[in-house]
Amino acid sequence: MSIFSExxxxxxxxxxxxxxxxxxxxxxxxxxxxxxxxxxxxLWPEPEPMSLEPDDDLSTVFDGISPMSYGKTHxxxxxxxxxxxxxxxxxxxxxxxxxxxKRLVIVGDVHGQKTALEKLLGKVHFDKTKDHLILTGDLVNxxxxxxxxxxxxxxxxxxxxxxxxxxxxxxxxxxxxKDSESPQSMSDKVDLETKxxxxxxxxxxxxxxxxAAKEEYLANEALLDRGDKPEYQTARSLSKGQxxxxxQLPLILKVGRIPSNKDLPPAFENMxxxxxxxxxxxxxxxxxxxxxxxxxTLVYPVDELRRDAVKRWLKEKAEKKNxxxxxxxQIDEDEVDEFLQKIMEAQGLSSDHEGDDVAVPTxxxxxxxxxxxxxxxxxxxxxxxxxEAEVKAPAAAATSNDDNKPGEVDASxxxxxxxxxxxxxxxxxxxxxxxxxxxxHDAKSGLTVPDTYGNGKGHTFGLDSGCVYGRKLSALVxxxxxxxxxxxxxxxxxxxxxxx
Length: 500
What we know:
Elements: H1 3-36, E1 86-88, E2 103-107, H2 114-123, E3 131-135, H3 146-155, E4 159-160, H4 164-176, H5 183-188, H6 192-205, H7 210-221, H8 229-237, H9 240-247, E5 252-256, E6 270-274, H10 289-294, E7 297-299, H11 301-321, H12 333-346, E8 360-362, E9 368-369, H13 370-384, E10 385-386, H14 388-400, H15 411-419, E11 423-424, H16 427-432, E12 435-439, E13 460-462, E14 472-481, E15 484-493
Parallel strand pairs: 1-5, 2-3, 3-4, 6-12, 10-11, 12-13
Antiparallel strand pairs: 2-14, 5-6, 7-8, 7-9, 14-15
């Protein structure tokens, strides 16, 4: 054997060892990766499905959740809000057979679409001497003629509520004029227009576009950002009188009861008009002004807190069973859902929030639609509470029926026994009981009225049907007739002003 052969044989052995070690290392690495990516292993076996044990105390699972409240205290005044957040519609404008007004015409979001508004009023044969117009807010912005819409509303003597777009325009207008309203500027009698002219004139000397300089100056002067440009343009298009009229619009307009010589449908016993919505079980005076102008849904913080409490309870339960060897990933979400339902049923709680669960308004789409929750709230009041008048009526009936024969039971007494199972309404519930809300704001949902709105079932009427997006402008027309109060929906097609 040559020296070369001996060297070649001796060098092959380390190479083989290196190859074997590489294969072993790769195998171990792949095995580790598979083990580490798997929740369970021989050392950490898959747990058995959780089940209720006889000694499980379900009544204490939610004990760690602190009580919550919303809308239970009066809010301090907010800058820029109208003198009255809640206003009453004057009685002279409530439809009646013997009064001045025969019809209420309540119109959804117009958004500067004056032509569509005129077309709609023409279609219902609006007569200023016999009819009264109410607008659900967002008269301005997006469309081509905000000033024209406001001017028409003023000319017709209309009532309206403040929407989120009016609020933004008024905020921008206030910011634009903050310097001109300061003591220094008042004493010097220098307004914003003068400053703009002077600043623009100076910029002209520097060979800059005076129009661009004016826009830039106004933006800086009024602390505006790019998102405020539409509101700025609208504010500049409105007269001082129009801005003043908008600034005094209430957030909530109480129409109240529309009288009739017939039994009224529920919709007209206690009516209010708002732009966006109201939170159930919160008095009108304590509603959040911003939410009234912008809300779309309600979320219940307690839902997440209860879910977290069930997770902790299941983890503690599993740790006891497995001697502390439980990973967070072992708490299955479906299992959490299952036990959450069981625990809530054991505690007499409902996922429909039938108790005193606190609801928080949001302008997003998550959570429950506020109007669905409002209708559930009204149904719950009708089923579980009784008014003061209903409590007094059986007693009066019992006094007047003393001549009944022995064993004879009056119908009112039967009702009284049934009503004993119902509690008396709180002050807030009494204020809100039977209240129907007419609102706008939610163009995405479109026209949203009770299933059979001809006879007033349901307690919400959503009238924003996306006119500014080329859809329709809607009106709820309520009329007093000899046969009673009737109502219906009238719509007209709109020209598209902006994209959705």
